[in-house]
Amino acid sequence: MPGCAINGILSPVAGRAYDMYGPKVLLTPGFLIMLFMLWNLSHVTTDTSMYTVVLLHSGLMVGVTFVMMPLQTHGLNALPANLYPDGTALINTLLQISGSIGTALAITIMSASQNSFLKSVSNPSDPAMESISLTAGGQTAFILGIVLAILGVIMSLFMNKPTPKEQPQTQ
Question: Keyword Nucleotide-binding, does the record have it (predicted)?
Fold first, then answer.
């Protein structure tokens, strides 16, 4: 809940920053914030407090806010106005599809890592091993996010400035 609230609160701030500076100023720091938070989430253990996890997730959502909104706006601004409804529909469809694929991939990685961990311990039926194996699987799954965030940082460095047609309008 706190991460979603932060996302909602910061979206207008990110929108104003996009209007003033364009997407690149938001994308690179956004991906770097995501990378930092995902790195820390990949080191969560069974001893990590719930508050730490909530704090890390909230920080992750700050990065997500500074990535998603500028990318969507920049993509739509590249279209002629008569294609905005089609562009919006396409973006929403791609978000749903990629979210489903990403979730399935992360769960597959987590499950495989969890099973691999359980095979490596002397007593896999020990109830304590269940939570430890789940944590180990989660740590491995966050590596997928780290890889994607690294790719995002690299691509954000090559982000083109908006062309005059795409240039955000300040009011």
Answer: no
